[in-house]
Design a protein that fits this description.
The complex is a heterodimer of chains A (about 80) and B (about 350). With about 80 residues, chain A is an all-alpha fold. Chain A is built from 3 helices and no strands. Chain A is globular, with a radius of gyration of 11 Å. With about 350 residues, chain B is of the alpha/beta class. Chain B has one domain: 3-Layer(aba) Sandwich (Peroxisomal Thiolase, Chain A, domain 1). The relative contact order of chain B is 0.21. The mean pLDDT of chain B is about 95. Classes of the chains: A mainly alpha (about 80), B alpha/beta (about 350). Chains A and B meet through helix 2 of A and helix 1, helix 6 and helix 7 of B.
Chain lengths: ~80, ~350
């Protein structure tokens, strides 16, 4: 796990403290993240990294797990 | 599809919202999510309070209240109405058209052209396009465009993805020839391949209502709803909007040979603050020129949100000033439509409350 994916887990834990994301490789299929959670997560990531994730990038496949989220952040210059 | 209309205008705008208000903070226990999580969503999306009809109040009740308000005040003369368009997803009946119900209750002349349009969040733009097309007929000098919906009656109160965002409302726009030259540009796109992204599955003839469709169950997104209820695939709709609306607006402005900087206001449909902020950024439009606070004040009342944004943001200022406006709606269908026009000074531009006790049976 990279430093970035660890930070993503921390942000997810702040959003949904009752959920354990560490055991899941597909948050959506496992019902751990819904559309409103994704919106909250994007807002949190925008604020945390001072970026504005393009609305067209808010696709389910970018929010499958911490690695795919890290991949999305990489497009905005956030290093792993 | 592109449209051009010459020498027509919106001459007055009235919005009617139920006085009954519900606050998100008081609804948190209804949802199947930890309260702390729901509170975070409030700040991100911009949810606070919304206006809901009481009991059996229908779209026509809201519309009739507003129309009588204008008639009683002398702002609308019934004998001068040639066309009556009602845009709604929540008609009083499958048949007859609710516009005919309104015509009858107002005692309008028999040669008034009444038309219902089943459209949602793009419905103000779609209704304007239809109204301006009517005005192209010599026999038609004044069209009343009514947008009215009671979507909260279709929504599960245990669906956090939808219920706290929705509201009920009606608007009345008067369309007539413009005394000064102006060209209105409009465009429209429909994608019926995505018709299931926003829908009420049961209740029509494809899937009639039964006790089974009324059964409320836990959905995969953690919300409780049944097939009788409104349902929206939020991420799919967000992505549709972010992909489709910027090129739609660019094409509109290009056709009108107008720069974004020359547009005073971008009055868009109001799904939530988050989506509109993303859209403003994508369009390269300052966020303060694209109002995004209607959901937190009134809720998303489908096609009524654009007139609500205008009346809430500008109010009587639009009875004194003239603005270049870009209007845009997007939603059920999936449909998106935009117009570029000059608005103001209007004869009236206001927002009034519909009393909870007022039902026009």
């Amino acid at each position: 796990m990279t430093e970035l994916t660890q930070r993503i887990h921390s942000i997810l834990a702040e959003l949904r403290p009752e959920v354990d994301y560490s055991e899941s490789t597909d948050y959506l299929a496992d019902g751990l993240l819904d559309s409103t959670d994704i919106v909250s997560l994007v807002a949190a990531l925008d604020a945390r990294y001072g970026i504005s994730i393009d609305g067209t990038e808010i696709l389910p496949e970018h929010f499958t797990n911490a690695e795919t989220i890290a991949g999305l952040l990489g497009k905005y210059g956030v290093n792993p | 599809m592109n449209f051009t209309f010459r020498n027509m205008r919106i001459s007055g705008l009235l919005v009617v919202v139920p006085e009954n208000e519900s606050r998100y903070d008081d609804e948190l226990d209804n949802y199947n999510f930890p309260v702390a999580n729901s509170r975070k969503l409030k700040n991100v999306i911009g949810i606070d309070r919304h206006r809901l009809v009481s009991g059996d109040t229908c779209a026509s009740d809201l519309a009739l209240f507003g129309l009588r308000h204008l008639i009683d005040r002398g702002d609308l003369l019934p004998d001068e109405i040639d066309g009556l368009i009602l845009v709604t997803e929540t008609p009083d009946y499958f048949m007859p058209p609710t516009s005919n119900v309104i015509q009858g209750k107002l005692g309008l002349a028999e040669n008034v052209w009444c038309m219902d349009i089943n459209q949602g969040c793009a419905g103000f733009a779609v209704g304007l396009i239809q109204g301006f097309m009517m005005l192209q007929q010599e026999a038609i000098n004044r069209v009343v465009l009514v947008n009215a919906d009671t979507l909260t009656r279709t929504c599960s109160p245990r669906d956090r993805n939808a219920f706290p965002l929705l509201g009920d409302a009606a608007s009345i726009a008067i369309l007539e020839p413009s005394p000064t030259p102006q060209t209105i540009h409009a465009n429209l796109q429909m994608d019926g391949t995505q018709h299931e992204k926003i829908m009420i599955p049961a209740g029509g003839f494809r899937l009639p209502r039964t006790p089974a469709t009324a059964n409320v169950e836990l959905a995969s997104d953690g919300n409780y709803r049944g097939q009788d209820h409104y349902h929206m695939d939020g991420i799919a709709v967000l992505n549709f909007v972010q992909h489709q609306i910027p090129p739609l607006i660019e094409a509109l402005l290009s056709a009108a040979k107008t720069l974004k900087e020359d547009v005073d206001w971008f009055m868009f449909h109001q799904p939530n603050r988050f989506m509109l902020e993303k859209l403003a950024d994508k369009l390269g439009v300052p966020r303060d020129k694209l109002p995004n606070d209607i959901v937190e004040h009134y809720g998303n009342a489908s096609s009524v949100t654009v007139p609500t944004a205008i009346a809430h943001t500008l109010g009587t200022g639009l009875t004194e000033n003239t603005y270049t406006m870009c209007l845009c709606g997007f939603g059920v269908g999936l449909t998106c439509s935009s117009l570029l026009l000059t608005m103001g000074p209007l004869q009236f531009c206001e927002l009034i409350d519909f009393p909870s006790s007022q039902v026009d049976n």
